[in-house]
TrEMBL record:
Protein name: SDR family oxidoreductase
PROSITE patterns to which the protein is assigned, alphabetical: ADH_SHORT
Classification via NCBIfam families: PRK07035.1 (NF005446), PRK07231.1 (NF005559)
Organism phylogeny: Bacteria, Pseudomonadati, Pseudomonadota, Gammaproteobacteria, Pseudomonadales
SUPFAM superfamilies: NAD(P)-binding Rossmann-fold domains
Pfam families: adh_short_C2 (PF13561)
Organism: Pseudomonas khorasanensis
Amino acid sequence: MSKTQLFDLDGKIAFVSGASRGIGEAIAKLLAQQGAHVIVSSRKLEGCQHVADAITAAGGKATAVACHIGEMDQISQVFAGIKEQFGRLDILVNNAATNPQFCNVLDTDLGAFQKTVDVNIRGYFFMSVEAGKLMRENGGGSIINVASINGISPGIFQGIYSVTKAAVINMTKVFAKECAQFGIRCNALLPGLTDTKFASALVKNDAILKQALTQIPLKRVADPSEMAGAVLYLASDASSYTTGVALNVDGGFLS
Ligand SMILES: NC(=O)c1ccc[n+]([C@@H]2O[C@H](COP(=O)([O-])OP(=O)(O)OC[C@H]3O[C@@H](n4cnc5c(N)ncnc54)[C@H](OP(=O)(O)O)[C@@H]3O)[C@@H](O)[C@H]2O)c1
């Protein structure tokens, strides 16, 4: 009996935003391990190159590309480059997001509001539009949006961030419904509290962490690598009949 090929990504081209560290790095490394050529992206090229070098040193295929997903011209440029270099895109993981202000919702600063919307909503949306056009030309693909449990149950003092994550869950359904006819699937991952730089204000503060753990049935935070398996499932043929879902990977928080 031979092993399943359902999770193989040989010959696939995958783009992962926010892949220089944290959850995105773990996703990029697992997709490459399964055979994909991974375009490792974030704002700063140096961190991406470091991850791409680690992938190639381990025998995988990777390219580092800088792209600020809050800047429309950078999104256009990056997709022009993908088209020229690879001529196709099979997997897009929208993972890079921002959360610049922790405060009561009544104290929301207009600049922080705008930045959060530009990156977390407009960025995910137009990255998906550009990727979708390329995928349509090649008969299909898989888009995975890293949303958050906050998109279902808002985090305290994370008002506008939580609003954008709810929008990402709805955006996922929009692309799933309208792009299914092109062979494109679109699904969301909803991570729970994960030990990254992004969550360090929560994870590294003993009092906050203790309080958070009371709400997590598994009684621990996640390691970034624990998000990657779910993304591999959504990226690969193993999920060929799955589209429009929001998959909680949260230690039971939302249950
Ligand atoms: N950690 C958690 O507890 C948690 C929970 C729920 C959901 N999430 C979600 O998981 C995703 C990844 O978060 P993480 O915890 O892995 O964060 P992280 O460790 O801080 O990594 C963030 C990544 O995004 C990049 N980035 C930030 N702003 C960007 C922009 N405007 N354009 C392009 N790249 C950008 C960063 O690199 P540069 O600085 O080089 O740009 C970095 O590679 C986010 O969507 C977040 O909302 C995280």
